[in-house]
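Class, carefully examine what follows:
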Amino acid sequence: MRRVGICGTEVNDEPLNYIKNEFGVAHAINVMCQPKEKIAKITGGDMATAVFDATGNRKALESGIGYMSHGGKYILVDLSIGELTYSHPQIHAKGTTVLCSRNATMEIFQLVI
């Protein structure tokens, strides 16, 4: 499996530029522009070993599973109001690990990371 540095996704280019410049994120992808294909290209087809979502956005939370590699981890740290829908075969077949936290304190946030 090919290891790649941190990759960030967002719908707006301004936050993408910010995370690249301020945090040294290696790859910043606009999710409105074929994110799965771009992540596959960056990772040599392996996809992401960990997907970390702090948006609380239903569409983002539901689509993040598609960015994961086989055996990947899906880490959710924000709370979404309402129901989320996932395809069980898609999650199960990948051997997905799902980790959730509400990020109550900085210490908990660091532990989840």
Observations:
- The CA atoms of residues 103 and 110 lie 9 Å apart.
- The chain has five helices and five strands.
- Residues 13-23 form the longest helix (11 residues).
